[in-house]
Amino acid sequence: MKEKITIGPFHPELEESVYFKLVADENRTVTHVEIINGFIHRGMESLVTQKNFMQNLILTERVCSLCSNNHPFAYALAVEKISGVKVPPRAEALRVIADEVKRVASDLFNLAMLTHLAHHHELMKDTMDAREHMQDLKEIIWGNRMDMSANQLTGVKYDLNEEKIKLILETIALVEPKVNALQDRYENDESIRAKTIGVGVLPYEDALELGVTGPVARGSGINNDVRVVAPYSLYGELKPKVTLRDGCDVHSRAMARFGDIVEAIRMIKEVVANLPEGDTYVEKRPHIPAGEAVVRVEAPRGELIYYLKTDGSQKPVRMKWKVPTFTNWEALKVMILGDKVDNVTMILNSIDPCISCTER
Amino acid sequence: MSEVIPKLFRINTGSCNGCDVEFVATAFVDKFQLETLGVELVNDVKDANLLVITGPLTARSESFLKNTLTKLKKPFVVVGIGTCSVSCGIFRDSYAINGPIDKFVEVDVNVAGCPPRPQSIAEGIAKGIKVLEQKMNGEATPKAIDTIFKDFSAPDSFRGRMSLNEENCTACRTCEIVCPSNAIEISSTGDGWFVHKIWHNSCCFCGNCAYFCPTGAIFSTNSFDTAKLQSEKFSDVNVGYIDYKKCSSCGDRYMPPSKGLLSKAYTHDDVTKLNEKICPKCRKEANFKRMYA
Ligand code: SF4
Ligand code: SF4
Ligand code: SF4
């Protein structure tokens, strides 16, 4: 007996709107999957060409608020490539701090959603509480819990003084033991293991073939972290240590994210301790000539590519993104087919989908 | 009087996910007190009487939103969360946007913010519950809406509602140009005044205006008091007046340099004394006469 099941587009377990049409057999195993998209399409590639370079600093941030620092970061890198600006060392350091703080908060949110969908209420609350420290930090230093508005076209908009550095270190000192304890619980908790191990499997070969990226790749044993394979900003010196897991399932992807968090914390501490003196931006804003640039950075969900084309005017002629979820999305079909209907939203969450990035 | 149990269902009509993520924080982190409001999160929209809507309503979502709305039983209230839901915010000019949502559903409470603080979200839901109580118990005169927060100030550096110091503004329009949401509108009255408006319900609280303003006239306050009734939607505006001064010598109108700029240029002087009330043309003439006449 076949059963047709639809999920979405508006559903409490879906953070963002998406529409699943599934067919399941009598054991509630998915035999057919169709995913209908487009609900978050806001026409952003057109919008960015209507706005000037200053406005786009903010518009790119609103592509997605979970990786809302990566977008303006990559955008600024692209503009700087075209206009030949070299940002001061202190600005590079501040960019990395902002980015890694975002990474910790973003990954913790995804993990909290995992436990929410696995109905482990206590673990979810504890994960959200750990994330709250990062949210408070962002609000105090950057002024908003999600959108930091940290970057500008020749550096950064913010600076750190003694007091703020102390606050970062104190927050990290609070978060670090909590993250370590959480990591231990996610690794060993019986009910989490039962619900996530062997679920949503993406074998190594499929992962390679589909070109997945970020923690989805790392959970299937592939390291293509942009910070390692094509270092930018300070990452060449920081040498992030990448956690690889080979379970290829929901659990492995979650644990790969924990690896990212731990490493982000290490890097924040290191950069803050060695913050170079000097300017936070180049005072003279250069003319942005006609040109083209491609840059790529590692967002919390994986590789983010920015293409920018300018013609010497105040607005971009073309701007295009390749976002991590775009490649990871295809892997969903491999993960969901043959798995249980009840696991679908959890599998979706395991790629940490950013539909707003993908459909923009 | 029947007891009112608020049953909440969230609809994302195309948000950048910031508002939805912060809604989750509001719902599941104890300090934001959503539980104290007695809110129940329901799995089916049929059971809901409190709709929380985020996003600017993409073209793709429109028919699905309309369809979902038909499933609701009256009375219900709608709380729009985030600047997008109120005015389409930063996405307003796009071909793919059909919002704001109040074109298709009667909205009761708007919470501006990008994303709003969880405290503002909780505040908006609290106000929504009050409206729901009025609707369900049919009171003729709506009573004052209670608030759950007495103090609306966040950390000093929080980017809250924007404000303008008219004294320092020269109507140079930099803020208008860098504002990504077209939330700032500067117009001339034609008789010597400029009007500087900040539309709080369009603002995405990004701080670009304050960052690029050359005189420091526009600035963000730390107020997160943005949960407002629908009736206040179009009046939540900061209005500033910047006037041309009358030259005390020739009588022409002119824009004096702002105190903010002068104090940057003359760091050691008392700028209030520098600002003589004559226009640049007369000042040049006076200087010329002083030196050569
Ligand atoms: S109001 Fe801001 S945070 Fe909320 S959905 Fe819109 S752009 Fe995102
Ligand atoms: S607020 Fe600042 S940027 Fe805007 S018009 Fe006034 S002086 Fe210019
Ligand atoms: S903070 Fe300023 S620049 Fe940003 S949207 Fe609001 S008014 Fe515009």
List keywords for this structure.
heterodimer; A: 360 residues; alpha+beta; Cytochrome-c3 Hydrogenase, chain B; 3-stranded antiparallel sheet; 8 strands; B: 293 residues; alpha/beta; Rossmann fold; Alpha-Beta Plaits; 3 domains; 6-stranded mixed sheet; elongated; binds iron/sulfur cluster
Task: Describe the 3D structure.
The complex is a heterodimer of chains A (360) and B (293). Chain A is an alpha+beta fold and 360 residues long. Chain A has one domain: Cytochrome-c3 Hydrogenase, chain B, CATH 1.10.645. Helix content of chain A is 50%, strand content 13%. Chain A has helices at 44-50, 53-59, 70-83, 89-117, 121-142, 162-188, 190-196, 204-210, 215-218, 226-229, 235-238, 250-273, 324-336, 344-350, 355-359; strands at residues 3-7, 19-24, 30-36, 151-152, 155-156, 290-299, 302-311, 318-322. In chain A, the strands form three sheets. Chain A has a three-stranded antiparallel beta sheet, with no helix packed on it. In chain A, strands 6-7-8 form a three-stranded antiparallel beta sheet. Chain B has 293 residues and is an alpha/beta fold. Chain B has three domains: 7-136, Rossmann fold (3-Layer(aba) Sandwich), CATH 3.40.50.12280; 162-223 and 233-243, Alpha-Beta Plaits (2-Layer Sandwich); 246-292, no CATH class. Helices cover 28% and strands 18% of the residues of chain B. Chain B is elongated. Chain B starts with 6 loop residues before the first strand and ends with a helix. At the A-B interface, helix 1, helix 2, helix 4 and helix 5 of A face strand 1, helix 1, helix 2 and helix 6 of B. One iron/sulfur cluster binds next to helix 5 of chain B.
